[in-house]
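CO-FOLDING WORKSHEET

Operator: S.A.
Ligand of interest: zinc ion
Run index: 62
Mode: holo prediction, single chain
Checklist:
[x] sequence pasted
[x] SMILES validated
[ ] output reviewed
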Amino acid sequence: MTKLKPCPFCGGEAVLEDCGPYYGEGRFFVRCSKCDIVQEHLWATKQTAIKAWNRRVKDETD
Ligand SMILES: [Zn+2]
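OUTPUT RECEIVED:
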């Protein structure tokens, strides 16, 4: 599985969260374990959540 890049804001470790139990199906988002920033979007698969997170990291550091 693709690795998560560090948080674009604090450089902390990013973690993949699964809120499926609350939504009744797979819903994933990425959260920073340090500053607690979360993706504003829920994703259907782990892979899309990771891709979106990594893309945003790139966008914001360019
Ligand atoms: Zn952070």
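REVIEW:
Residues 23 and 56 are 24 Å apart (CA to CA).
Helices lie at 20-23, 46-61.
[x] output reviewed
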